[in-house]
Amino acid sequence: MINEFKEFIARGNVMDMAVGIIMGAAFTAIVTSMVGDLIMPIIGVATSGVDFADLYVSLDGESYASLKAAEDAGAAVIKYGVFINAVINFLIVAFVVFMLIKGVNNLKRKQEEAPADDKPAPPPADIALLTEIRDLLAKEKKKAA
Length: 145
What we know:
Layout: H1 2-10, H2 12-46, E1 57-58, H3 67-72, E2 77-78, H4 80-113, H5 125-144
Antiparallel strand pairs: 1-2
């Protein structure tokens, strides 16, 4: 059973999957930072300083100065601004993954379209000479027979 487990772990597809998960986690941190630190401030400036993360609806009917104040008061809130941030984050990740897949597919397509050299490489000179000698000997043998 232990040997089977070792074989399972040592298979390339399991290792590739593990690397993919680790890279995905690291990539998620980069994209999250890009969205929160680069893109959202630009969107905030474009929308006159509105920070989507602070957009909410209080379900208790009260009015609060901020989302933090509503949460501190224990009010039930719908944080639709956080949802907007998550949607924007998803769209950016999906676009980046799309661009990566498109690039990989273009590389594969170029490799497939590259003309295959059907001609075998010429043999080295000594092999060509030996082949010629063999053929001449075979002709002489036929003539003698």
